Amino acid sequence: MSVKAFKLVSAVEREMLMGDKNYINIECIECCGKNLYIGTNDCFIYHFLLDEKVSTAGKITFAATKQLHKYLGLKKPVSELKAASALTRLLVLCDSTITLVNMINLEPVPTGARIKGAVTFTLNENPVSGDPFCVEVCIISVKRRTIQMFMVFEDRVQIVKEVFTPEQPCAVAVDGYYLCLALTTQYIILNYNTGVSQDLFPYCSDEKRPIVKRIGRQEFLLAGPGGLGMFATVDGISQRAPVHWSENVVGAALCFPYVVALDDEFITVHSMLDQQQKQTLPFKEGHILQDFEGKVIVATNKGVYILVPLPLEKQIQDLLASHRVEEALVLAKGARRNIPKEKFQVMYKRILQQAGFIQFAQLQFLEAKELFR
To answer: Which BP terms does GO give this entry (predicted)?
Structure first.
């Protein structure tokens, strides 16, 4: 049964990005606060400011204002963008090279600092260096079966470690010293400090695009065999039951308590609390789904959209209104980590009371008594 957990709201219309130039496609996105960056197939970066507006009726819309766009001077697509806001730097991957550019004016840093030979890269959101003026970057190198760790400063880069993998890596996520890697035939956890690795489960990267996503401290979300979204800790164990995706998921994101997945036709929303599918949104030609500081963004080749979560209290009230007491209580308990303690206690008492009356009206007196108590 469905829950209305998210609404899909347009953020950047195609005309704002490409006008009548049909050949322009969106390759990658990055969002940092109100700053939205888009990389395109014709080697441009676009910078927009996103303004969230709430109407008196509570309807949320987004107004995107274009700040500037910059041509990188190559005939290659911009394949990845990552913001390092502490350094006011944007890391741009284009033609196997990561360039540092200024987040405001999109100009390359004067020193020309760059990382060459990168297939793909990610940032360590749980850094080990403790230096606030540096970001830790992990790249899959063009060198076969090689991962490299870098420290990136405002105007220079420094290699820290080079690690060799048993098979060719094709996707990576980082937490502290731990790398979660999709190799050609399996997922592994690798501690790049000690060199100790642990096999997770088999996976064929030739058949499907692997998904490796850090979702919290020492925990990752992976696209497993049989269309399963699997959770794995750095110890190689799973503390949560898997969620059932379709076979052709191309992206996944976390917006607690939901796991959101994108395939070629739909956006699906599963609860991490009971693993049930809660919502399905038709969405054709989507190829990007990412979460940025709690904001979930999806994109087609031509437009960018934001998945706006409905307030958890509203979702709980909707469940109670349709007499889905168990689901409402599970969601209410799960909401504890998102709501201040005092506010939560008041809200939870009220929900227990409402649930008690629903059970009482259905002549389930023992259950009602427990809830009232």
So the answer is: autophagy; endosomal vesicle fusion; protein transport
Q: Does 290 share its domain with 327?
A: no
In a domain, 1, yes or no: no
Residue 102, domain extent: 6-310
| pLDDT tens by residue, 239-275 | 889 999 988 899 999 988 889 999 989 999 998 888 8
Per the DSSP assignment, residues forming a β-bridge with 56 are none
Residues 273, 305: one domain?
yes
Rounded to the nearest 5°, which phi and psi values hold at 153? -105, -175
Shared domain for 330 and 243, answered yes or no, is no
Residue 238: helix, strand or coil by DSSP?
coil
CA distances in angstroms from 17 to 54, 152, 230, 285, listed in the order given: 24, 30, 36, 17
Whole-angstrom distance, CA of residue 88 vs CA of residue 174: 22
For residue 290, being part of any structural domain is answered with yes
Residues 323 and 277 in one domain: no
Report the C-alpha dihedral over residues 25, 28, 31, 35, rounded to 10 degrees.
-40
CA nearest neighbour of 272 among 240, 247, 246, 297 = 240
Give the mean pLDDT of 41-70: 90
Q: What angle do CA 53, 261, 47 make, to 5 degrees?
A: 45
Distance of CA 147 to the CA centre of its chain: 22
Cα separation, 56 vs 50, in Å, equals 20
State how many domains the chain has. 2
What is the rounded CA–CA span in Å between residue 65 and residue 102?
A: 19
Question: pLDDT digit string (tens) for 153-181?
Answer: 999 999 999 999 999 999 999 999 999 99
Alpha carbon distance 298, 304 (integer Å):
6
> Is residue 268 located within the same domain as residue 354?
no
